[in-house]
Amino acid sequence: MTDSQQRPPLSSSQSSRVPPAPPPMNMGAGKAPARPAQQTPSNTLQQSGAAASGQTPRPAAPPATAAPNAAPVNASAQKARMPARSVGLSAGHPTLEKLVRHAYDKGFSDVHVGVGETPRFRNRGDIEITDYPVTDQATFMSWLREVLTDEEIRRFQDHLEFDGATQYDFARVRINVFDTLRGAGMVLRLIPLTILTLEQLRMPLVLKDVCHYHKGLILVTGPTGSGKSTTLAAMVDYINNEMPKHV
After folding, report:
1. What is the crossing angle of helices 150-159 and 137-147, to 10°?
2. How buried is 94 (Cβ within 10 angstroms: 0-12 exposed, 13-18 middle, 19+ buried)?
3. How many CA atoms lie within 13 A of 207 on its CB side?
4. Residue 101, Cβ density class (10 Å: 0-12 exposed, 13-18 middle, ≥19 buried)
């Protein structure tokens, strides 16, 4: 029995599943068929994992390019962008340092400034009005920026009161900023950098004897500007110079 007699004829459905013959290769150009590109193990694993999960594999990310070199920061230009501490000072108004210097040269103890008021000095308990113009809001804020940081100014604006200190090359200054019905105000107390002795202050010599006491409570009282802090500073300076003690 021949092979054609042993095998049954193919049905139409079976014959349709037979793959067609591959197209003939064009060998006329004399070129070998291109081989598929080799895949790296990482790409192969990613594609196989994506195929197993039924997702389309994502193409590999392009290589990162180096960012261009940033332009160097110009220090002078950056400094010019920063607001100056004296910005906002109105015409005819002095700087706060000039006011403090004026009070120091005259021997005054305090400087009083405030929005809507003329700057004033305290001279041994008496208030002396200056010839400067009335302080406006812009000038007062400029004075605040001379002696306070931005954080300290925000603290005053939140609590409407602030106590601090600053120092010039000729005196130390205690600062009290507060709020009034007219607006913000400020009082600056001048503290000399040089501590005067009890003799220079013409204080009674009994204060030296008090400095030698080992026990007890000493009270130095008096109104504002009467010299309480100056007297205590002279007594502490006497103890530091005459006794082997830590104050």
Report:
1. 120
2. middle
3. 19
4. middle
Cα distance between residue 85 and residue 121, in whole Å = 24
The rounded distance, in Å, linking the Cα atoms of 182 and 116 is: 6
DSSP class of residue 220 equals: -
pLDDT score for 45: 40
| pLDDT for position 128 | 94
- On the CB side of 27, CA atoms within 13 Å amount to 3
The β-bridge partners of 127 are 122
Structure token pair of residue 53: 């999960």
Asked if residue 176 lies in contact with residue 99, where contact means CB atoms within 8 angstroms, the answer is no
Tell me the residue type at 87.
Answer: V
Domain ranges of the chain: 96-192, 194-247
Residues 6+ away with beta carbon under 8 Å from 161: 176, 177, 178, 179
pLDDT at position 44 is 45
- CATH 3.30.450.90 for domain 96-192, yes or no, is yes
Contact between 187 and 111 (Cβ < 8 Å) = yes
Cα–Cα distance between 74 and 78 in angstroms, integer?
6
H or E segment to which residue 240 belongs? helix 228-242
Single out the residue of 81, 62, 75, 103 nearest to residue 189, CA to CA.
103
Mean per-residue pLDDT over the chain, rounded:
76
Element (H, E) at 75: helix 75-81
Tens of pLDDT, residue by residue over 48-85, are: 444 444 555 555 555 544 444 444 444 333 333 333 44
Q: pTM for this one?
A: 0.57
Distance CA 130, CA 122 (A): 11
